[in-house]
Structure formats: structure tokens, C-alpha cells
Design a protein that fits this description.
mainly alpha; Ferritin; 60% helix; 0% strand; DUF305 domain-containing protein; DUF305_CopM-like; transmembrane helix; membrane; Ferritin-like
Length: 255
Amino acid sequence: MSDTDSRAGVDLPAPADQAPADEPRPRRGRRSALWWTPVALVLVAAVLAVGAALGSVFDGSPGEGSVDVGFARDMSEHHAQAVQMAMIEFDRGSDPTSRSVAQDIALTQQREIGVMSAWLSGWGRTQTVSGPPMRWMGGTDAAGMTDGGATGGHDMHDMPGMGTTADPDDTARMPGMATPAELRRLASSSGRDLDVQFLTLMIHHHRGGLAMAQYAARHGEQDRTRSLARAMVLNQSIEIDQMQNDLVRLGAPRA
């Protein structure tokens, strides 16, 4: 899935409130209602994108090889898959709580994709770049980062799909991302089986994203990069705990 395709044509339910693009804050909890207003979401995203792009002009543009640019590109791609998985669960999952979690993830991460896309445009950088991802994390951090807060004490290569096989169908592009085979199984599932698969895959996905966000929070050049990365760490850590509890509630093993 291309970076451009992953950001276009996603119909999402509108959020109850909206934080400014450069001042992300933790969500207040799960939304009790599941509803859709895609036109309003598009309008809000457009306003956020304009604001973020204008802010970039005043902050200056980070370099092509900077943490800020690399983080915006790779996290946008990482987020796009999370939105894809969340929409599958929201559409066909049987557990209302898991569907509500999926809605929150889709709303938040699609919004963040829009913010980071606007940054890249404002910095005069392309949305995507050829070559392997995560080079901005620097050497060993990108290849085999171990961070107890991000991965639960597991090396990144031990996460599902990472470096376990030479078959592209069973290999994830970045830590935590689902493999093509896992995405097909998720898309063909329904009911409780879908709920459990979604929760398990999304926990792994969040762990991989946390490692990236933690690195950007420490090493980003711009305040806006560090601020957004810190918000991602907080929100996704909370969501991991929620989803682990949901797996137990559904009678499934913790991820």
C-alpha cells in the first residue's frame, strides 16, 4: 500500500472535540457512541493541515536526514496501517468495547497523519522516500532497539513479522506492523475472532510505534515533533493496557 493511497479515501467518524495540530493531548476516554460524519472530518483535517503548514514556515525546515522528517514519513506509514486495521474492526467486530477502541485509534491516527503530512509539505519534503525505513533512528536503534517501555523488554526483531522469514508475505515493513498475510486473515474474519485478532495485532502495532515515538520524543529537533511524539507515547501506552484487559475479558491470552 503506497503512502498516498493509505491517506486517501478513508471515511471516518467525526471526533467529539479536536485538539490544535501542534498541541496534542491525551484523549479523555472511549467514546460511547459510534457514528459517522466524514464531511466534517475532512473540513477539520483541512484546517489542521493549513495551521500546521503555516507553523512550519516560522519554525524553519529540518534537514532531509533529520529525525523530524524521518519520523513524520515513517510514522505516517505506520499509522496508515493502524487506521486500516481499526476500520476493519469497526465495520465488522462483535464486541462494542473493541469497536470503540478501534474508532478512537482510527480518528486519532488519521488526524496525526494529516498533521505530519502538513509538516512535510511545509518543510518542502516529499511524503515518501525510497529505501529502507527508520534510517533516521540511527544504526543499531533502527535495526535492533530494545526498550522496556516500548516493547515490553523484547528486542524489536523478536516482534511478530520482524526478521522471522525471508518470505515477503510474512515480513512486516516496520516493527509492530502486521504482515500481508496477517492483514488478509484479519480482513476475512468476523465476530469474536476478528475482535481477538484485531486487539492482538494492534497491541503489537502500538509497541512498534512506541519505540519510534520514544526516539523522536528524545531526539527530534522541533518542539512540535517532540510534543506529538510524547502524546503518541502516552495515548498508545494507555491503549495497550486497555486492549490487554479486553483480551482477558474476551477469554483470549494477553498479547
